[in-house]
Fold this protein.
Amino acid sequence: MRIAVVGATGLVGSVILKSLIERKFPITEILVVASEKSIGKKIRFNNSEIEIIGVKQAISLKPDIAIFSAGGSTSLKWAPEFAKVGTTVIDNSSAWRMHENIKLVVPEINANQLTKADKIIANPNCSTIQMVVALAPLHTKYKIKRLVVSTYQSITGTGVKAVEQMKNERQGIKGEMAYPHPIDLNCFPHGGDFEENAYTSEETKLINETRKILGDQSINITATVVRIPVTGGHSEAINIEFENDFDISEIRGILEKSEGITIQDDPKNNIYPMPKYAEGKDDVFVGRIRRDISQANSLDMWVVSDNLRKGAATNAIQIAEYLVSHKLIE
């Protein structure tokens, strides 16, 4: 099993490499791929020094799977070239997510849709992944009518430049700015680019991707994305209106039995999900589960997950694991 990691030197790329080792993914050869300025440099993988190669060389080596985390323009240009030589591409960017013929996959929900013919597979946005993992089993039971979600997103979602900005601010150092405002001791409702309807691109992703993954275009969704000065993961306050009424104990039972979810919901003992404790873990943590007292058939909950792990690297590797275990790699 020859695996290529495209964008291996980035934040998500480094977590992909780490997670491949931790999850004991069956690799016979690893190809670490990055931009031209990094070609020839060495990167450590599983106690070995691996030389970074360029994307053209990686394509010529015809890997079985290529996991992309190198930005949308790179994916649009090179993913089809990998697919032409028989490689199955799992892409972390937004480039392919809303293409009609490209599967948008969260393994716990819809990996069973994958076939051998799927040579480009889209990994959803990090904030979408953790939300739909918690929503999918509830949608199956009660049918979601409307969602209102506010996200409190880690700066790691923006990348190394944002982490450096916060470190500099905490040390009183003037440096390059990833954001239009200071991030330390601050938060701002701006993730992605503002669109004509006054939503941001990150908010639009939450809306469109959730409908596609859950396979239901009738769900009404509105979102507000907020960036906050943490590194552990994304947090989401989610309000859900169902078509059908529910019992809170049954909601808890459904979530407790669902794959990839850990319940942390004991407010009397100050137990609820927090990014500080989600960091480095693969689960989606759910707490503050309570009935919305303002309207019928409605639920509030708080969902937290490490955006670099389940929100990106782990989800991509889980897709790869499914492809291998179900013999969808030729």
